[in-house]
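Re: How this chain folds, sequence and tokenised backbone to follow
How to read it: Take the token row as a discrete description of the fold.
Start of record: The labelled sequence and token lines come straight after this line.
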Amino acid sequence: MVKLKKRKSDLEHLIDIYDKAYSESVRLDAEWYKLKEKFEILTQKKIKANNARKSAALEYRKEAGRSHITSPCNQTCTIVSGNCTGCGRTLSEIKRWSKATDDEQRQITKLSKKRIKK
């Protein structure tokens, strides 16, 4: 009888551990979905801001009487060793892109494509 009570107590203890682990799992899943949703919202905001910046740069170029050369930016920006892993441009090239002449932009695009191929 004592062994049976001990086994029942052990089983109840295991069930309690399982219930706590399941509750924690549900909590973590909910937290993960909230974080994922926040990330998606921030990504959309970043894309909108980048598109607005591109539009402003295009207007600036039009007003200055220059043609529009499409930026190599593909909005997957991560700077490693001074270069963007998304487009291959250096930080200084990214910074001066909107004010660069057409020839400078062509040269930057050419160099960035070479860096990506490496």
Summary: The radius of gyration is 27 Å. The chain is about 70% helix and 5% strand. The chain has two domains: 1-66, 69-118.
